[in-house]
Amino acid sequence: MIDALKLRQDFPILHQLVNDEPLVYLDNAATTQKPEAVLAKVAAYYHQDNANVHRGVHTLAERATKSYEAAREKVRAFINAKETAEVLFTRGTTTGLNWVANSFGDQFVEAGDEIVISYMEHHSNIIPWQQLAQKKGAKLIYINITPEGYLDLADAKRKIGTKTKIVSIAQVSNVLGGINPIQELVTLAHENDAIMVVDGAQAVPHMKVDVQQLDADFYAFSGHKMCGPTGVGVLYGKRKWLEQMEPVEFGGEMIDFVNLYDSTWKELPWKFEAGTPNIAGGIGLGAAVDYLTEIGMDEIHAYEQSLVDYVMPKLKAIEGVTVYGPQDPKDHTGVIAFNIEGLHPHDVATALDMEGVAVRAGHHCAQPLLKYLNVPATARASFYFYNTKKDADRLIDAIHKTKEFFQHGSI
Ligand code: PMP
C-alpha cells in the first residue's frame, strides 16, 4: 500500500500554509503537483543541456535530443504502445483530440457519417467534433448516462451503428469520476468499422492503461495531470492511421525536403511535430513517468479507491450534501463532485479555501453534462496518491464549518 505521508515529502509545494492553515490540495483533476524528481530534471535540462533538438550536431544538441527521445520511449513503455512512432508529443489532451478531428476527421469523415460521444465529455472532446460535424455535414450523437452516473452501454449499443465513423469517449469523467467501459466501446466501434478515440486525461494519471490491450485507435492525455509539466501531452495513434493522415501543422522539424511548391514529411512521429517542441516539458514528462512507474499505477489506483471508500460515506452523511456520479469506489478514481443545498459551489470553494482546502467549483468544462444533470455548477474534490485520510477529514471538517458559517455567519 502507498505511503502517502512519505510520498508527500517529494512535493515541495504541499508544505505550505494557505490562509494560515496547512494546504490540503484537492484539485488534482485540474492539475497535479510536481515532485522534486520532475522539477530537478527540468532544471538540469535548462542548466546543462539546453539546445534545440534533432538538427544540431554539437554536444548539447545531441544531449537534448537524446533526453527528449528517451522520454518518448518512457511514455511508450508506460502505455504499452507498440513503437515510439505511435507516440506523438502534443501540448495536451486538447491538442491531441483536435489533431484527430482535424486530420483523421478531415480525411475520412463524409456527409451523413455519425460521430458518437457522450453527455459526460469535457469540452475538448465535444467542440472539435462539433466543428468537424458542421464542416462535413456529419451528425454528432450523444450516448446517455444512467441515473447512477454510468455511461449507458445499452444506449451505446443503440447509437453506435453502421453509419458511425468515430466514437470518442473519456475513459474517466473529470466530473463524475467514474471509469467508463472503454473495452466494450472499442469492440462496438470496431464491429461497426468505426474508430475509437479515447480521452485519457483523467485515466492515465490514475490507473494502468495499456493501449494495445484496449485496442483503441487513438488515445490522448496531458502531462500536467500526471505530475509532469504543463504544455506537454501525448497523442497515441495506431501506425496504420498515422501513416495515412496528413499533419495538422506545417513548418520546421516535420519536413524531409522542401521544394518551391511542395514538400515531403519526415517519418513518424516527427511528421506531426512541427516547430521546436516543448523539450523541457517532454523531458519532465519522462521523469514523471519514471516517478509514477516506481510507485506503481495499480497501487495508485487502489490507494485512490481506498480514499474514496473512506470519504464518500462521510460526505454523503452530511445533511444537504448531494454527491454526483457513481458512488461505488471500485468504479471510481479520486474525483468527487458534490453540492451543498442552498449554497453556490463558488461560495463553497471560497469558504473551503479559507480553511486551506483547495477544490474546484464551476462547470468543469463539461456544460452539456451539468445541463444533463440539471445543475448549473458543482464543487469538486479530486484526490491523488499524495492525499491522505487526514486531508479527507479536513475536507469534511471544512464543509461542516462552511455550512455553519452560512447558517450562522461565523467560521
Ligand atoms: N479531457 C478531460 C476529461 C479533462 O479532464 C481535461 C482537463 N481538464 C481535458 C480533456 C483537457 O486537458 P488539457 O486542458 O490538458 O488539454
UniProtKB/TrEMBL annotation:
It is an enzyme of class 2 (transferase). Pfam families: Aminotran_5. Its cofactor is pyridoxal 5'-phosphate. GO terms for molecular function: cysteine desulfurase activity; pyridoxal phosphate binding. Signal peptide: none annotated. Its EC number is 2.8.1.7. GO terms for biological process: cysteine metabolic process. It comes from the Bacteria. It catalyses: (sulfur carrier)-H + L-cysteine = (sulfur carrier)-SH + L-alanine. Residues 24-395 form the Aminotransferase class V domain. Keywords: Pyridoxal phosphate, Transferase. Belongs to the class-V pyridoxal-phosphate-dependent aminotransferase family. Csd subfamily. This is cysteine desulfurase.
